[in-house]
Structure formats: structure tokens, C-alpha cells
């Protein structure tokens, strides 16, 4: 499976660049359910005071970082913060490569002009992406958008995710989040 291969390469790349030491123990058991998604949406809705396109648009790293602990609690403790790019049919969104990573590590990355995408990978290779659909809807002037993409990578029709880096510590090493949300 292509995603699994790319994920393992992202884990190795993250270690090689000194970005993250995180790993993932893959499993075949699925963790997604509608009830779990509704619980997560409730948490996000409460934290953000409502879910809107404006709150999600262009904030993929921040949103997934902010809710990673909740995703781990609701879905699986081994959920892995993932950075990479997305392909939808013939189009590539937020594509970057190793030269970009090297440059970001040297010069820093402007969090307001990032050319990367963040999502969560569950050990079952299920994707939880809370922001791509809002960004896609905005760019394509679509008024309604799905709140999340939550599918196993083998079930994504016409769409593929390409992990390049892993680990929530990557947001600090690359400078992609502006603040940290603490939950007590």
C-alpha cells in the first residue's frame, strides 16, 4: 500500500532531519465511528465557540495540533500528527519536498503562508482531516463543506494523502503554530 510506504518514509525522514522521534505501530483494527466523530465535533465546537469555515481555513497545522490530545483520547492513543500534501484527482495541494524542509529548518516558515497540509493518521491508516474540505470549498467557492475527511486511505476515491513528516514536535521545529491551547 502506497500510503503505508510513504508514512514509514515520513517517520524515517522526520528522524533523519531531527524533527521527531515518533513512530507508529500499525494495526488492522478500524477506530473510526460516527459516534466518535460526533464526540470530536462537539469538543471542537465547544472550544471554538462554533465551527465555521473561517475558523478552519488555512489553519490545518494549528487545528490538528490543538485537537491532537482529544483525537488520541477519542479515537486511539497512537494517533500521529502528519504533515504532507494532498492530491485530488489531477491536482496537487500543498505539495512540498525535502528541499523545502531543509529550507524551512534553516530559515523558518511563515505560518501565514505555509505550503503544507496537516492531518492525523490513526494506526489503522485511517485519516482524520478536519480542515481540507473547508479550504477546498473556499477556493472553489462552494458554500457547503463537510466537517471532516475520515476514511481509511484505501477508501479515498480520487483523493490521496502523501505524508512527508510526522510528530507534533514538527510544528515547533518548523514554526507552524502561533499558540498552544492547554486543556486542564
Describe the structure.
The chain has helices at 2-16, 34-48, 53-56, 60-66, 68-74, 98-107, 132-139, 170-174, and strands spanning 80-88, 91-93, 117-121, 126-129, 149-152, 159-166. Strand 3 (117-121) and strand 4 (126-129) form a beta hairpin. Strands 1, 2, 3, 4, 5 and 6 form a six-stranded antiparallel β-sheet that branches. It has one domain (2-174). It is built from eight helices and six strands. The protein is of the alpha+beta class.
Sum up the overall morphology in one term.
globular
Order of helices and strands: HHHHHEEHEEHEEH
Structural class by SSE content? alpha+beta
Task: Please count the helical segments.
Answer: 8
| Straight-line distance between termini | 39 Å
Largest sheet data = 6 strands, antiparallel
Query: Which value, in Å, is the CA radius of gyration?
Result: 15 Å
Task: Indicate the mean pLDDT.
Answer: 86
The total tally of domains equals 1
Percentage of β-strand residues: 15-25%
Indicate the percent of residues in helices.
Answer: 25-40%
Low-confidence runs: 179-184
Strand segment tally:
6
Amino acid at each position: 500500500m502506497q500510503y503505508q510506504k510513504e508514512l514509514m518514509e515520513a517517520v524515517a525522514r522526520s528522524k533523519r532531519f531531527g524533527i521527531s522521534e515518533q513512530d507508529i505501530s500499525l494495526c488492522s483494527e478500524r477506530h473510526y465511528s460516527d459516534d466518535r466523530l460526533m464526540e470530536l465535533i462537539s469538543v471542537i465546537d465547544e472550544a471554538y465557540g462554533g465551527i465555521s469555515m473561517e475558523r478552519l481555513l488555512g489553519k490545518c497545522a494549528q487545528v490538528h495540533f490543538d485537537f491532537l490530545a482529544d483525537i488520541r483520547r477519542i479515537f486511539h492513543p497512537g494517533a500521529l500528527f502528519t504533515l504532507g500534501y494532498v492530491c485530488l484527482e489531477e491536482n496537487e495541494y500543498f505539495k512540498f519536498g525535502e528541499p523545502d524542509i531543509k529550507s524551512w529548518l534553516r530559515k523558518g516558515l511563515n505560518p501565514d503562508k505555509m505550503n503544507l497540509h496537516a492531518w492525523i493518521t490513526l494506526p489503522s491508516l485511517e485519516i482524520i482531516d478536519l480542515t481540507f474540505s473547508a479550504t477546498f470549498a473556499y477556493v472553489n467557492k462552494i458554500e457547503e463543506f463537510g466537517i471532516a475527511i475520515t476514511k481509511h486511505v484505501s477508501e479515498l476515491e480520487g483523493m490521496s494523502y502523501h505524508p512527508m513528516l510526522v510528530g507534533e514536535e514538527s510544528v515547533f521545529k518548523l514554526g507552524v503554530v502561533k499558540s498552544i491551547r492547554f486543556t486542564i
